[in-house]
Write a structure and sequence with these properties.
Blueprint lengths: L6 H11 L6 H13 L1 H18 L1 E2 L6 E2 L5 H4 L4 E8 L2 H10 L4 E5 L17 H8 L6 E4 L5 H14 L6 E3 L15 H9 L5
Parallel strand pairs: 3-4, 3-5, 5-6
Antiparallel strand pairs: 1-2
Helix pairs in contact: 1-2
Length: 200
């Protein structure tokens, strides 16, 4: 940073640089864009951040983020409360909702099991999930976790923990994406698609 930049600008750049997908260089560009357009960008962003900080909370039922607790999805009477989709983070809820094809409810784990990162079951919302599954209402738990080593480890752990509830546990199908060309897919995706094949 240039010596002429004050501590306020440096703090803004440092904070922006901590956001996912932004580093020091992108943080500087974002800070400059905000400062050049104070009235149209910086002031509304500052107000939106203050508003979000004051009003957004974690849903006590599913772990998602909303301005109400329980969240709008948990409060929606048209959603199927007997169907729970387990996801890693809130961003996955938003991705599922974009598609509009899932009409059940969610359970946000808050991360994945990872021995390397020191994330154990006690860190995640496992107890809350098993309690929800055992409430006598849930008829299926869908594990929609990433197809990574940590995601699969977490899925297997959750399936074992949920076995005692007697509720069927399923996983999202993995394999060839819609519009996908086999020539462009990696070997693991093709192998998974073959294992998850179904009648035509």
């Amino acid at each position: 940073m240039a010596a002429s930049a004050g501590p306020e600008i440096e703090r803004l750049i440092a904070l922006l640089s901590k956001l996912p997908g932004l580093g020091p260089r992108s943080g500087r560009r974002a800070a400059l864009a905000l400062l050049k357009k104070r009235d149209t960008l910086l002031a509304p962003l500052a107000a939106a951040l203050a508003d979000a900080q004051a009003k957004v909370r974690t849903c006590s039922v599913c772990g998602s983020l909303d301005t109400s607790d329980p969240c709008a999805i948990c409060n929606d009477p048209t959603r199927d409360g007997a169907l729970i989709c387990v996801v890693e983070e809130v961003g996955s809820v938003w991705a599922m909702e974009r598609g509009g094809s899932f009409k059940g409810r969610y359970h946000v784990m808050g991360g994945l099991l990872s021995a390397l990162d020191g994330v154990g079951p006690e860190t995640l919302r496992v107890t809350e999930l098993t309690a929800r599954a055992a409430d006598g209402v849930v008829r299926e738990v869908i594990l929609a976790l990433p197809a990574t080593v940590d995601g699969q480890t977490t899925a297997h752990y959750l399936a074992d923990r949920l076995a005692a509830t007697g509720v069927p546990v399923t996983m999202l199908a993995r394999g060839v994406p819609v519009g996908g060309d086999l020539d462009w897919l990696d070997d693991g995706t093709i192998a998974q698609a073959l294992r998850a094949r179904r009648p035509a």
